């Protein structure tokens, strides 16, 4: 939760609560990947698989550890684990204006759809979500 609370700007309403995390972690097919520097947590990814498709639910890196390749490493680790669990495709969604979208596109994800007004910011402002997907066959 330390990473969750630091990695996501509360203005956009993207961070999950402790209860949401605990609830999803108890479901089959869900896994968490942690990145750390020594004993200090730096980032995480949370994903799940259903049948032969995986979904990256969350990925977050603490501000002091950004621009060090941690997000890309977590994304790649999620892809590898998804393949090991039998996934042929990985999906995710991202706030349309989120700078992380560039990471996903550079990693080979392509747009699959858009959810208008999906995210509700702290001030009530609505933000679109862009859904992206990637075939894992070529990894």
Automatic annotation (TrEMBL):
Residues covered by the N-acetyltransferase domain: 1-137
Principal EC category: transferase
Superkingdom: Bacteria
Keyword presence, Ribonucleoprotein: no
Molecular function (Gene Ontology), one example: acyltransferase activity
Pfam family, one: Acetyltransf_1
EC number annotated for this UniProt entry: 2.3.1.-
Keyword flag Acyltransferase: yes
PROSITE patterns associated with the record: GNAT
Sorted UniProt keywords: Acyltransferase, Transferase
Entries under PANTHER family matching the protein: ACETYLTRANSFERASE, ACETYLTRANSFERASE YPEA
Name of this chain's protein: GNAT family N-acetyltransferase
Species for this entry: Sphingomonas quercus
